[in-house]
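The pair is quoted verbatim as follows:
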Amino acid sequence: MPPAVPPLSPALSPEGERENARQAIGAAANRLAALSPTPRLDAELLMAHALGVTRDTLLLSRLDDAAPDAFAALVERRLRHEPVAYITGTRDFWTITLAVGPGVLVPRPDSETLIEAAVDHFAGTAGPRSVLDLGTGSGALLLAALDQWPQSGGVGIDASDAALVIAAGNAARLGMTDRARFAIGGWTGNGAVHDLILCNPPYIGTGEILGAEVRDWEPASALFAGEDGLDDYRAIAPVLRGQLAPGGVACIEIGSTQAEAASALFADQGFEFSVRPDLAGRPRCLVLA
């Protein structure tokens, strides 16, 4: 349930005067502080969306604009724990902007660790010829990789038809339909080998407590992986080697407490591995060769 905060229209000040964007953002941030770790950022993104501009444009030149009436409704949605990315319909990831919505996970900065690991692996080369994204969701990892290496092509696999529609739409908006394909499937891929495999599987234990923003809005099928959160790693490890080309690398996202247990599953399949931390220093990516 959202916090019991009295509603206040962002379009009007307490004195009944028309608020500008700066004032409305401040008022909204105060209300959002009870549920969001980034209330000011949330309010700025919602205001930019209401004005139809980027956040940079908002901050540089539009803070004195009158706050649009639509902003109030956006704030109310956020107070119900709806993710900002679902409200605005977009999320920035790596060097690209993606359309997102219910049915796919919201791409997170932690997942950029996989792209960073891949960039390091292919440094000094022409990059991967072929990229496979297992559990592609919005297409975030595949499309970020293809943006990084314009000569590359790849395929995104997902078990969700809804996710594949979103991913294909993102490829079209980014002008990548000639290089990115999407197909229904599971962890066994598409029957081909690839130079780079990217994968952000479900890894939350079924008993773990999640915030309402994740639990009530994002798809459970993309979050939970059995009691210990390792079920999908157990499924991926035995079938991954046959999908990886010689000299290639697989970058697999893990939960911050799963490095030892997850890496053991892949080591048992003969993989050499290293663990790459995210920006917060938490184990986040298994780099497998």
